[in-house]
Amino acid sequence: MHTLIKLPYNYDALEPYIDARTMEIHHSKHHQGYVDKLNIALQNHPEWQQRSIEDLLADLSHVPENIRLAVKNNGGGVINHNFFWEILAKGKELQGEVKQAIESDFGSQAQFIEVFGQVAVAHFGSGWIWLVLVDKKLKIMTTVNQDTLLASGAKPILTLDVWEHAYYLKYQNRRSEYINAFFNVINWDRVNELYKKAARIA
Ligand code: MN
Prior knowledge:
By secondary structure, the protein is mainly alpha-helical. The chain has helices spanning 20-42, 46-49, 53-58, 65-86, 96-106, 109-122, 168-171, 175-182, 188-199, and strands at 127-134, 137-144, 155-161. It binds manganese (II) ion.
């Protein structure tokens, strides 16, 4: 059985940028929903139940066809949200090796925010915006629905959920306000750790 991870902070920890009610519903209803639907898809397939989600998604072509789409969508939904919660926190400043890398690859923190924000605003429909390390360079990538970057070769160090469920309660149709708020709740300490791991910096 796959289970819902606990958040490493309270639902109100990101106020006022991301409100407690949105966090509660996002985690306890939407994220939980992906976990539940993944378990339902696997319930008659014990041989696949013990595999990690990463393993299931990497081996999707061997997953029985009648559950393949459910495993892809819901497995992706589980791990994308696991990653998203991990890179959120209030009151962190961009610092360390990832600061140098962002300044080197985007020009400045402000230019990174501008470009990432433009991509996020322009993304059509549901999906995720990613900051990744690929070929030793930081790049912005996008995925649709609950697709992941697992097979891309890119190493994600930051992500933003642009599904309407991530912002609609507080921001309604104003996705750009949600995106601007997001830049205040990035856990740059964690992103720096992920960057160093991806870049193999000790
Ligand atoms: Mn979401």
